[in-house]
Predict the 3D structure of the following.
Amino acid sequence: MSRIGVAFDKARADGRALLVGCMPAGFPTVEGSIAAMTAMVEAGVDVIEVEIPYSDPVMDGPVIQKASDIALSGGVRTADTLRIVEAVAATGAPVVTMTYWNPIEQYGVDAFARDLAAAGGTGLITPDLIPDEADEWLAASEAYGLDRTFLVAPSSTDARLRMTVEHCRGFVYATAIMGVTGARAQTSEAAPVLVSRVREVTDLPVGVGLGVGTGAQAGTVAGYADGVIVGSALIRCLLDAPDQAAGLAALRALSAELAEGVRNPRR
């Protein structure tokens, strides 16, 4: 069974949602990103989403774009991401990789699947890859026992939604809003409807991403979703800090706040 699936089951048994925390690989440095993700786990984040920095991140808002630019300027490569995955997986937390498809094609789909599995990664979230065009990835994920998480949106038709979730393994990523990533003042009103639609066609857990930035918002999303996915708010802790120590302290504090939120869902 999927390691992330096991983590979702454990959270469900505890009467709460799962907390997924996202951080770009190599931000602010390779070692700094390992320290940041380890701090997130220690503060209560259940699953770490390691994003491969990419020069044209169509779904990412300004915070993740800036962090990715810093990582790329520092020379981070896909091979560095695999080393980061291995280091973070050693904490015992499941590690999933979020990536645009071009870096995987450049690396080699089968080779990347092999190396990701060897590093302890659980699978991929692929925001710009749809199941219709994913034959090579579907085959590689089967060969190496990796999860595949495709995205559904409020605009997805019933037919598209059903087809997409049929190709998912591990969990389904429901985008709460139409737009790019980034914390917002209010959570999406469309997200609960989307989660309900997904649950009509699959038993897979549903994680909701885009827009969550506080413990209260995490608790609201945890009231209807199986997982709460947070990226920009966590990344901003490091971007806005005067130094690494302050950044890690802020990151730990927000991670703990979000973890408390998912443990007290607002139904």
